[in-house]
Amino acid sequence: MPPLLQDVRLALRRMLRERAFTLVVVATLALAIGATTAVFSVVYQVMLRPLPYAKPEQLVRLYQSSAQRERLGVSHLMLQAWREHVRAFQQVEGLALWDRTLTGDGTAPERVRTGRATAGLLSMLGVQPMLGRAFGQDDAAAGQDDVVLLGHGLWQRRFGGLPAALGQSLMLDGRPHTVVGVMPASFRFAPDVDLWKPLVLEPGWEAQHPGDVTLRVVGRLETGTPLDTARKELEAVAARLAREPGMTGQPPGVRLVPLHELVVEGAHERLWLLSGIVALVLLVACANVANLLLARASSREREVCVRAALGAGRWQLARQLLVESALLALAGGASGLLLALWGLDLLRLLIPQGVLAPESLRLEPHVLAIAFGVSLSTSLLFGLVPAMRAARAEAQGALGVARGGRTLTGSGRLRALLVVAQVALALVPLVGAGLMLRTLRALHEAPLGFEPRDVIATDVLLPGNKYEDDARKQLALSSLVENVRAIPGVSSAALASTVPLWGRNGVSSFLLPGESASAADTRELATFRTVSEGLFETLGIALKEGRPLADTDTASAPRVMVVNETFARRHFLDGHALGKQVKLTMDGEDFREVVGVVRDVRHGSVGETPQAEVYLPMNQFASLYMVLVVRSSARLDALVPILRERFRAVDPDLPLGTVREMEEVVEASLGTTRVLGGLLALLAGLGLSLAGVGLYGVVAYSVSQRTRELGIRMALGATDSQVLRLVVGQGARLATAGVAVGLVGAALLARSLSGMLYGVRAFDTVTFLAVPGLLGVVALLASWLPARRALQVSPSEALRSE
Question: What is the DSSP secondary-structure string of 593-629?
Answer without folding.
Answer: EEEEEE-----S-TTSPP--EEEEEGGGS--SEEEEE
